[in-house]
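Ticket #4471: structure output looks truncated?

Reporter: J.K.
Steps to reproduce: submitted the chain below (156 residues) through the standard prediction queue, then opened the result file.
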Amino acid sequence: MAEQDINKVIAEAGQSFTLPLKSKGLELHVHLEPDLPRLKFDTDKITQVLTNLINNAMKFTEKGSITLTSERAGDNAVKVSVKDQGIGIAKEDLGKLFQSFSQISTGTGRQTGGTGLGLAISKKIIEGHKGQLQVASVDGQGSTFYFILPVNATEP
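Returned output as attached by the reporter:
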């Protein structure tokens, strides 16, 4: 855990997906709020969360774009979002998302692969940083997964 610039980590994570997104015909948009306060976090762990969220967005988006954003969330927190234009998530499935080994049906009959652990692990990582991982989604209209990290998190 070290105090650092969250925008640098977001930009690097996005950059690592440039070719896979391009090969799938998807665009990547990155909107980073300048001059965000520095946060205390584990770079590898936050990169793992971002990688999982971007991978999921890619998996469930056939056309359009994926957008990474950072912004202030009140005076003492920063919000990081991964928004897709994919299939979305049915309201009744939202509660299952962060459970270990849980995968929701896409309704397309197509298997998406994976273990069902990515979001559960991501949630634990963000909670270990005294933050929250959440989702906003409309079935058929895409999803936004976001995490909020406090500016002045104290060590556990």
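Triage note (M.O.): checked the attachment and the full token line is present. Residues 107-111 have pLDDT under 50 and may be disordered.
Status: closed, working as intended.
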